[in-house]
Amino acid sequence: MRKKRVTKGFRISSAYLLAGSIAIILVGVILFWIGTKGGQTNALLTGLASALVSLGSVTLVAEVLLRNAYTFDLLEIVGLEQSVYETGLSELSDEPSFDWSWVSDASPTAIRVALIDPRAWIQRDWPKVVDQAALRGIDIEVYLPAPGSEAVTTASAVLGIESSEYEAQIEAAVSQLRSSWRLRRSGFDPLDRRSFLTITRVPSVLSHGLVQCGDRLAFLFPGMHGAGGSSSPLVVAFDNRRGASIWHDQAARMWDHLAKGGWVPVWTDRKPSDDPNRPGLDLATQGDADDPDDLEVHDAD
After folding, report:
1. Is the Cβ–Cβ distance between 292 and 279 less than 8 Å?
2. SS3 for 232?
């Protein structure tokens, strides 16, 4: 496997250190000039000047020449660089800071999203997904916990709210996804006619959220909630284009787990006449689509 080098060392105020080193050297030069001005030598000033010039020079050399070498040596010793590369880890951050522009960078034909706490993600990141669906044909599948299921009980406990409140949030999320999709379908900048949305309820417990977009994955881990406040969800993103498949195998097991738990598609604008070879749900074979109250099929026109 090709090893990717780290191109930058530690970012510990490099600009400040460089500027400070140069400033110290300049001060030393000025003090040396003052100390020898008029043909007389001031031992105190020249000694201080020499010390400053030496200090500034050493700091400058260390910053320019030694920092990157030290960084590479340290990473080589602990094996961190290679380990990170081999796992495909591309980003680790809290959810509000995560850059979801990789949805557009991946130019996907299918996006699968499983959410535990859908409110913030739908508000902030769902519009980016819809924008992509206007540019190209994309099959989008969104999975949410099913009302009255163990998934709701577990997720509401993790989020620190009552089950009834959590179920209301899920229903609001379904409504928001559906209404925004319909509005964009008939809006000024309409969706590509080959783009489809399917919203599915899952009774199986979700330990974390997941966004899968082509070769890219983002695992969403719920924040901590307690009397002292709450923390933002954590996003851990992986890129399979590096050749690492371990996390994509994990995602495949998660989708299989949800399917075996009996997911129920509740809304889609895919018609039976749409191309069955496109990626996405086959509503005829997946989930429990026999109950007309659980499945609403709407024309894409």
Report:
1. no
2. coil
- Least confident among 22-36, 62-76, 158-172: 62-76
Backbone angles phi, psi at 143, to 5 degrees: -115, 130
pLDDT band at 279 (very low <50, low <70, confident <90, very high): very low
- For residue range 199-251, what is the model confidence (pLDDT) as tens digits? 999 999 888 899 998 788 889 888 766 555 566 778 888 887 655 567 778 88
Instruction: State how beta strands 216-221 and 209-213 pair.
Output: antiparallel
Residue found under tokens 């105190």:
44
Q: Which two tokens stand for residue 272?
A: 């039976």
**Which one-letter DSSP state was computed for residue 66?**
I
Distance CA 280, CA 110 (A): 7
What distance in Å separates the CA atoms of residue 65 and residue 52, rounded to the nearest whole number? 20
- Retrieve residue 189's tokens: 């900048």
Dihedral Cα 285, 287, 292, 296, nearest 10 deg: -90
* C-alpha to C-alpha distance for 114 and 255, rounded to whole angstroms: 9
Residue matched to tokens 């859908």? 118
Q: Partners of 89 in the beta sheet?
A: 238
- CA-nearest of 296, 297, 294 to 264 is 294
- Which phi and psi (to 5°) does residue 290 adopt? -75, -25
Contact 73, 242 (CB under 8 A): no
> Could you tell me the pTM of the whole model?
0.65
Kindly provide the residue ranges of all beta strands, DSSP E only, lying in the chain, ordered along the sequence: 89-94, 110-114, 139-145, 196-202, 209-213, 216-221, 225-226, 229-230, 234-239, 264-268, 296-297
